[in-house]
Amino acid sequence: MARRKKLSTTISLDGYALLRSLIRAGRAENLAQAVDLVLSEFGRLENRRKLARATAQYYDSASEAAIDEENSLAAAFEPTANEANADE
Questions:
Q1: At what angle do helices 13-24 and 31-61 cross, to 10 degrees?
Q2: 34 burial level (CB within 10 Å; 0-12, 13-18, 19+)
Q3: 85 within some domain
Q4: Please, which residues have CB within 8 angstroms of residue 85's CB and are 6 or more apart in sequence?
Q5: Which structural domain range is residue 71 located in?
Q6: Backbone torsion region of residue 19, taken as left when φ is above 0, otherwise alpha when ψ lies between -120 and 50, otherwise beta
Q7: Residue 33: is its pLDDT beyond 70?
Q8: By the 8 A CB rule, do 21 and 31 touch?
Q9: 28: DSSP letter
Q10: How many CB atoms lie within 10 A of CB 28?
Q11: What is the mean pLDDT of residues 52-73?
Q12: Element (H, E) at 17
């Protein structure tokens, strides 16, 4: 069983409504699961933002030869690109 940490706080009415809507939609069984779901999604979005920033920094500083190599690799993997799921 996953370890849990007690959290006691107040949230905005909009935040509470969002958590309740996740329960009504069947995406969470209770408020604790709804909070976990929201935090998990936030973490996933934050990781994507960091990856996008790192990728942009890489390409901004990469040599033309490195970019040509990246483009060749991308072309080689393009047929299977739709099979990948970044969230799994």
A1: 100
A2: buried
A3: no
A4: none
A5: 13-79
A6: alpha
A7: yes
A8: no
A9: -
A10: 19
A11: 93
A12: helix 13-24
**Amino acid type, 88:** E
**Interval 38-58 mean pLDDT:** 96
Residue 82 has a pLDDT of 73
Q: Is residue 75 part of a domain?
A: yes
Residue 24 · residue 34 · CB < 8 Å: no
The tally of domains found in the chain comes to: 1
pLDDT band, residue 88 (cuts 50/70/90):
low
Displacement of CA 65 from its chain's centroid (Å) = 31
Answer yes or no: is 26 within a domain.
Answer: yes
Pull the structure tokens for residue 82: 């739709």
Give this prediction's pTM: 0.72
Question: Does some domain include residue 41?
Answer: yes
Q: Which two tokens stand for residue 1?
A: 């069983």
Amino acid at position 48, single letter: R
